[in-house]
Amino acid sequence: MVVRGPAAELSVVSRRFVVGGGAALAGVAAVVALAPGSAEGLGSLSVGEAHAAASSGDILLVDIRRPDEWAATGVPASGVPIDMRRPDLAEAILAARTRPDQPIAIICARGVRSRRLSSALIDAGIGPIIDVPAGMLGSLAGPGWLRSGLPVKDPPT
Question: How far is residue 136 CA from its own chain's centroid?
């Protein structure tokens, strides 16, 4: 079976690159704020902005953490949990969209994995992609979803 298209391109990105980083990501320091109508590149949103946009259906918010992390904190009430270790990750994310052009926002615990996966998705031709750098637990980008008091739901069983 031959797989073609953006999802196939992501499948060739090694797990080591996505989880552990890669030379291509070294030195990437700037995150471009998502401009209205922006369709390419990496944008960023605060957790509050991500919650509002996901609640209204303007974006798909994907929590890429592991199931044990979801169980410990819950998942964003306006988000969809999809474990980034899934072999069919790109397909699962694309299938969760409510429309083909819906921007995809990625959130993790503290913004490290979301940044790396966001870049890998963009490199694979999937977009538009938005990073939520404060994550669930907070980072230098902000207090995070939980400390901001945003709603969570129980993860799937």
Answer: 12
pTM reported for the whole predicted model:
0.75
Pair of tokens at residue 123: 């490199």
Tokens of 35: 């401009």
Rounded (5°) CA angle 127-132-135: 140
Q: Are 145 and 136 in contact (CB under 8 A)?
A: yes
Could you tell me the CA-to-CA distances from 68 to 42, 49, 81, 113 in Å, in that order?
28, 26, 12, 16
**What is the percentage of the chain residues whose pLDDT exceeds 70?**
74
End-to-end CA distance of the chain: 32
How many helices and strands in the chain, by DSSP H and E?
7, 7
